[in-house]
Structure formats: C-alpha cells, structure tokens
Design brief:
The complex is a heterodimer. Chain A is α+β, with helices and mostly antiparallel strands. Chain A is 44% helix and 11% strand. Chain A has two domains: 60 residues; 79 residues, Glutaredoxin. The longest helix of chain A has 14 residues. Chain A is elongated. Chain A starts with 13 loop residues before the first helix and ends with a helix. Chain B has a five-stranded mixed beta sheet with strand order 2-1-5-3-4, sandwiched between helices. In chain B, strands 12-11-14-15 form a four-stranded parallel beta sheet, sandwiched between helices. In chain B, strands 13-18-17-16 form a four-stranded mixed beta sheet, sandwiched between helices. In chain B, 34% of the residues lie in helices and 14% in strands. Chains A and B meet through helix 3 and helix 4 of A and strand 8 of B.
C-alpha cells in the first residue's frame, strides 16, 4: 500500500550472496536467528530489498511477510540503499519550530520519494534526524558532510542543483 | 487435573487448574467479552476488552490469558471494568471506518455488538488522524479493507498457524501498523491459497469475499439465460445458522425450496458430481496401483489445498488426482451432457455454485476448466452470499416446506454428502474401491477410523489381499507436516485425502461466521459434520456406484470411468507456482 515498492534497481553481487548464504547456514538453526541474520544481511548489502529478504525466506523457511514485518517494525533496518548523496533534515525541536517540516515536505515533493527512500537513479536519499547541535543555524539540513543552515523552502532547489 | 476454587463476582466457582479466568467464568455461565482472543489460535491478550478486576492485582488483567489460582477473587462487571472496556472501544472506533450501514458485517460484527452492549454513545470521542489504507481487491476471492481492521491479528494467526502459510502479517509499527503482505503486495500477488479462513475469523468487515449476488440476480432476471444452481454438501449443514437456527441443523429441504423460489431453472446438487468424482477417482487410484503410477495419490477436491500444493509442494503435483473437483465436474457435465440432452446452447447457460468455500471463486477461473470451450462454472457463491440472496428476495426461510432437488443432476448418495466433512471423500472412495476390487458387497459401510475432526488420521485396510494405507488430513499446517513425512520416506501411504480447511468443508472459509464468543467454546466442525453423517445414514443409497443417475450418465454419455470422453470433460491439469 501507499507507494512502498522499491524503485532502485538491485545490484547485489555473487560475492554478497555467498556471504549471506554463509551467514544464514551458520545461524538458521538457532532460536531467534532472524534478527541477527537481518543485521548481518544489512551489513553485507547496506539495506534489505525484496531480493535479499527472498533469499532469507527461501533459506530459513520463514514466510517473506514475517520477515518484512520485522524489517518494517525496527527503524534499524532499511528497505532502501543510501543514495550517493544522503540528505538529512533535522526535525529536532529548534529546527522544527523554525520550519524544517516544510523543508522536508518540499524535498519529498522535489525528489518524488518518501522519507527513508532513495531516488530511482540512486543519487539522493532522504532521511530525517534529531538535533545535530547546530540549533543556532536552525533550520538545518546536511548533504553528506555539508551543512546548510538558516534555510527557507525556496533554498531547496538551489541546494539540490549543486549535486545534480 | 485437580480443581481450583475461586470466587467470581462473589460466587464460588470450581474450575480445572490451568484454566484461564475466561474459561472459569464460562463454567459459571459468565460471559466475558473478547475481541482478539481465538482459542488455541490467537492467545495474545492484546485488545484489552476482556479485562477484569482481580483482588490484590495492581491493575486490570486480561482474562483470556490469565491463569486462575486457588482462592482468587475476580470481578467481571465493576464500574472500573466497564469504564475500561468503554474506553478501549472508543479508542478502537477513533481509527475505524464507521460506515456500518453499508458494511457487509453489519448485524453480525463483533465490534458493533460490543459497542451496542456497552452503550457507546460517542463514537467520535477520540477522533483524530486515521491510519491511511487502500482497499485490496487483487485476489480473485476476497477484498481486504484495512480501514475496518482493528489489528486483532486473528487472521494473521489463522493464516500462519492453522494453515502454515503466513502471507499476511503486521507491517510497520505504532500508529502506522497495518495488516498486509510483504512489500505491500496485493494478496493476489502472494502465495495466498484463497482458503478464506482469515475471513471466517475476522470480527469486523475488514475481510470479506467478493460478492457476486447482484450478478446472479441479473442472470435470473434475463429470459435468455438458463440458470442452473448446484449446492455443495456442507452448505446444507450451515446455511440455517444465517437464519437463527442452531449450529448443526440440516436445511437441505428448505435450501432446495429457497433456490427454486429464487427462480433457478434447475435446482441441482453438487452431491451428484461428488458421486461422479468417486467413480473417476476410485478408477484412477486402482489404475495407479495396478500400473505403477505415482503414489500416494492425493485428492483434488479442495481448491485451497490444490493451490497450496502448487505453491508449496510443486514437486508433488504429480501426486494430485487429475480429477476436477465436484464443483467443476458438475459445471462441465451441465455444459456438455445436460446441454446436449436438453438441446440448450451451453453459451446460454449460467452455472451458479453455492459453496462453503472462497477458493472456489479462484477455481472457476483456473486454466483447463472449460470442457465445453467456456468456463465450466460461471459464478461461485459462498454460503453467506446465498443467505444474503434469500434475505434480499424476502423469503421466510424458516417457514419454507422442504423440497427435493431436480433430477437427474440433483440425485446424490450418502457417500456424496459426507464429502463436506474431513474423511468423507476417503470413506466414499473406499466404499466404491473395495466393492470394485473384491466384487463383493461391503458388510460395514462406515469407515469410522477416518471420521472425526482430528487434523491427521491414518488407517490401513486390507482390500482383496492388499494392505491399503490411507491418511486423511485437514488444515494446511497439518498437510505440510504429513507431506514432509511422505517426502522423507517416513510415511508410505497409497491414498491421502487433504482438505484445505480444518475439519473439511463444513468449516470452510465461505461458511456462516461464528462469533468468537461461540466458536471458542463450541465444536462447530463436529456439530456441522454430524448433519452430513446423519444425512448419509438416512439415504437409501450410500455408495456412489449405485447412484442410478450416475449409472445412466456412464451408459448414455461417458462410457466408463476413465474413458477418453471422461478424461476430456472431468479431468484437469496443474501448474507449479512460486512462494511469495
């Protein structure tokens, strides 16, 4: 429901798959092995797309839906790869009262993705964070290591243009 | 086990140790309301409707999972308890689509009943944001409307535990929590087998079959159409419940009368096709034994089971009998033999089936189910949909005088009517196979070892010098357990009956919904099955091969069981599917 399909093409390698299969064969007979398998799988691939969850389901016999339920329950797991440029908007108190919610909404609209997702070309991902300790510059966002502060919605297009 | 003495609402109660407060209260005829609780299936104490006060306890406790102790004092109806239940109901309503007037479950919704009983007079009290959802219509047999879901997880539990499938579950967390499939696939894209057990346990209108009653009324009103109806064995054992009759009431005669009054041109019976199935299936089985064919042979009457086999045991589709299910054999026979006999163009026929099953809606759209070049069956209704038609047509069902089915395709034997209970197909097949093999009349027609509601039953019968090992399974988690034994070589059966729903068709996903308050404390399957075994006993013909209409159709049309013509019309093929 509600546009949750992964749009980023899967680029997993044979080596990654071999690593994952090795992890699963070590852990699968232990009780409660799904969480550590998912954690290791995310270490290997960086995220948990349907291709990876399907391998885990086939190897462990755990229904795909159950795996997906766990992945979407815990915020430590991601269904999307990090983009080349990860845009992180501070939604902490100071930034939020200064309008960072509007910045976030504009970014979703401009990039055509929801928070936590990645554009289909793999270029931009969008996340939110809490306080990054730059409240004096509120509202703040970061693009990888670059910090942008005292922003308005009108600044968003210009920032994105720098990275396109 | 020893008994424990407790007090409930000041009354002394003695209940077996290990009982929950809910069970002990039942023994004292005190009904504690529940929503999420389904005995042995969903015991998670999550919804908090069943809370009670316990002396010495710091807070209210969930009676569905709280065990009793010696000397415990419990109150089930104090103002504190009632206020808590009211608050819970109002909170559920704050995120509930309250379109009760147009809801399929209006009148038998468990949430609606509780709101009524607890005098909820302000359903908007906690209103605010609602969880976003979309209606899922992707599956052939049902719709899922999460705006009416109360997250009780009864459907999730029955799918994962009882059926061993698990294509639905809880996704996301907190306010966004929703019941759905992996990666938000539509149910139709998953390896859902269409059994409808989720619908059977849903307390609200979130899950429902796709309703085709308007299409049937339209066909009945069309003078160009010759509309034939068939009813599965299990329907007559449960339809009465929709009209307030006790569980376990046979309404075979009233049902036939109601169908005739609805205006069907012919009121036939799937029982006829069940007898036909036995002729073909017994012949197929004997052939496989004689010619070294694939064994064990497994029945193919239950479309939920067949789809399960295709998804989860694709390497065993060769074991499935090639016989179409009785529903499909019936449709195929109507549009070939009966159309020819009556001089009717099968294209002008509309074959409607009434089934205890939602998977039958999927089955009518399968490939290789079109003997006359068009679909064997046009519309498959559930027992519930037939009840809706009878109500909409204004028929006073309980006052109808019993009527008979039409001939010839309305004639069925006692062997056919027990198809609706787990073990029935096996028993019917044995009656015919044993007499065919030995050439002697059976002294004892009741094969009691394969009767009863247990999930897995086994028996060995010595037939004409050969030990025939059979197994009978219902519920798909049980099927998985048994098939894994067959694959590993641990079990070596010759013939297996598998029904998708626990207890067989009497407990099918299309049967009248039994509220949890009744279901948790009543053996619904056994009561409904008894109707069928009684009808078998009362039938003067109890063996499929002795059905005169069956003898006639082989003499006039098919030749003999397994003939080329029979193969073309009455048999089918399977596909291999993946797991999603």
């Amino acid at each position: 429901m509600l546009a949750k399909k992964n749009m980023v093409p899967f680029k997993g390698t044979k080596e990654q798959e071999a690593q994952l299969l090795e992890v699963i064969s070590q852990l699968k007979d232990q009780e409660g092995s799904l969480m550590p398998i998912l954690q290791k799988a995310q270490d290997i691939y960086g995220y948990l797309p349907i291709e990876v969850q399907t391998i885990i389901s086939n190897e462990t016999g755990i229904p795909l839906e159950k795996i997906y339920g766990v992945v979407t329950f815990y915020s430590q797991f991601s269904l999307y790869p990090k983009g080349k440029y990860n845009i992180s908007v501070c939604l902490g108190t100071a930034c939020y009262v200064k309008g960072s919610g509007d910045l976030f909404a504009r970014l979703k609209e401009r990039l055509g993705i929801e928070g936590g997702q990645t554009t289909s070309d793999g270029k931009f991902s969008l996340t939110d964070c809490r306080c990054i300790g730059a409240c004096g510059l509120a509202p703040v966002l970061t693009v990888n290591e670059d910090v942008y502060g005292r922003l308005t919605v009108d600044d968003i297009d210009g920032i994105i243009a720098k990275y396109e | 086990m020893a008994n424990v003495n407790i007090k409930i609402n000041g009354i002394d109660v003695s209940a077996p140790a290990g009982s929950t407060i809910l069970e002990a209260a039942r023994l004292a005829n005190i009904d504690i309301p529940t929503l999420c609780f389904l005995k042995e299936i969903n015991e998670i104490g999550a919804c908090r409707i069943c809370v009670v006060e316990v002396k010495g306890a710091r807070s209210l406790v969930a009676s569905c999972v709280y065990p009793i102790n010696e000397g415990m004092e419990i109150w089930t109806n104090t103002p504190k308890v009632i206020e808590s239940r009211k608050k819970t109901l109002k909170l559920i309503l704050s995120n509930h689509n309250r379109k009760c007037l147009s809801c399929v479950r209006s009148g038998d919704c468990e949430l609606q009943k509780l709101c009524h009983d607890y005098k909820i007079d302000d359903e908007t009290f906690y209103d605010g944001e609602k969880t976003e959802s979309e209606i899922d219509t992707s599956a052939a047999h049902m719709i899922r409307d999460n705006s009416k879901c109360i997250l009780c997880r009864r459907c999730v539990a029955v799918c994962a535990k009882t059926q061993g499938i698990g294509v639905i579950g809880a996704n996301e967390r907190g306010f966004k929590t929703n019941i759905g499939s992996a990666f938000d696939m539509g149910l139709g894209e998953t390896s859902c087998v269409s059994c409808g057990q989720c619908i059977a346990v849903c307390p609200t209108g979130a899950l429902a079959e796709k309703d085709y009653t308007d299409e049937v009324f339209a066909a009945l009103a069309d003078p160009e159409k010759y509309v034939i109806v068939q009813t599965a064995p299990a329907v007559r054992a449960a339809l009465g419940e929709e009209f307030g009759l006790p569980i376990g009431t046979s309404v075979q005669g009233k049902m036939a009368a109601a169908l005739r009054k609805l205006g069907f041109d012919k009121v036939f019976d799937t029982n006829f096709a069940a007898d036909l199935t036995i002729m073909e299936e017994a012949n197929e089985f004997l052939g496989r034994v004689k010619n070294g064919g694939v064994l064990p042979m497994i029945t193919s009457c239950s479309p939920g089971w067949v789809k399960y086999c295709e998804h989860y045991f694709p390497d065993m589709t060769e074991n499935l009998s090639t016989c179409k299910s009785p529903q499909q054999m019936f449709g195929a026979t109507c549009k070939t033999y009966f159309a020819e006999k009556m001089g009717i163009d099968p294209k002008n026929m509309v074959v409607v089936s009434v089934m205890p099953c939602t998977a039958k809606k999927f089955e009518i759209g399968r490939d290789d189910q079109n003997a006359a070049g068009i679909a064997d069956v046009d519309i498959a209704l559930t027992t519930r949909e037939l009840a809706r038609m009878i109500k909409r047509a204004g028929l006073d069902f309980n006052a109808l005088a019993d009527e008979e089915f039409d001939l010839p395709l309305g004639l069925g034997t006692g062997a056919a009517v027990i198809f609706g209970a787990t073990g029935g197909v096996m028993e019917a097949a044995l009656r015919t196979a044993v007499e065919t093999l030995t050439g002697e009349e059976l002294k004892e027609l009741n094969f009691t070892a394969v009767r009863g509601t247990e999930g897995i039953k086994e028996a060995t019968y010595n037939v004409a010098g050969m030990d025939v090992k059979v197994a009978v399974v219902s519920g798909l988690a049980n099927a998985r357990e048994l098939l894994n034994k067959v694959k590993s070589g641990e079990a070596d059966y010759h013939f297996i009956e598998i029904m998708g729903c626990p207890g067989g068709c009497v407990n099918g996903g299309g049967q009248p919904q039994v509220p949890a308050s009744v279901r948790n404390f009543t053996d619904v399957r056994a009561l409904r099955a008894k109707v069928l075994y009684d009808l078998d006993e009362a039938n003067s013909i109890r063996k499929s091969h002795e059905n005169p209409a069956i003898k006639e159709i082989y003499a006039e049309f098919f030749g003999e069981p397994g003939s080329e013509k029979a193969h073309h019309i009455l048999h089918t093929s399977y596909v291999k599917r993946s797991i999603n």
